[in-house]
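Handout, page 2. Input:
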Amino acid sequence: MARIAVVEDEAALREDLALYLQAEGHEVHQAGCGADLDTVLAEGADIVVLDVNLPGESGFEIAARLRATSDLGIIMLTARRMEDDRLTGLDAGADIYLSKPVSFRELAAHVRALGRRLGSVPVAESGAVPPPCWRLDRTGWSLVAPSGTTIRLTKLEMRFLLRLADSPETPVDRHTLSLAVYGTSLDHDSRALDALVRRLKTKVERACGTALPVQALYASGYVFSAILLP
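Output:
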């Protein structure tokens, strides 16, 4: 689909953004500052997802520089919510200005729309191969991989995946997941939830050779980044 450069100085958030957009089918490269971005752009890109508060050259300055020399799509992400900041970003050349914390699902939708407008993301044709789907078998307490492999689930694993399936491609916070899985909040010790996810991902990969598309998101929780049919 689109070639995307994610520019964010917080490594954890940058990695989460890149993983989510990769799961959407895009080619994604990461940069922590304007100089890193220039290296990435030498290889080509269609869309830049750009933080404002960066070391050295600010996101506003980078956006203005890029817009002066190219027609790249520019999506700005920032914790600055004042109208003046938004107008500054748009005046600098941003196509879209989103405030943090951003919904990854909303960001992906903006990327698709911007890519179509720029011509980098083709409109799906009839007869195109549909994206791979995972399916939960409630009666059989199992997860069915796109390959057709069936993986038996424990009660806790089933509860975890069912809660993610209720919010397709949308991050679910740890508190909500703890209530769904354990019936109580485990905010005092989130390691139990993380350990459950690690065991589940290992089980799935051993069973079918495919990584389970469950991702931990920065300051959010977890998201199932593929299609999961409940």
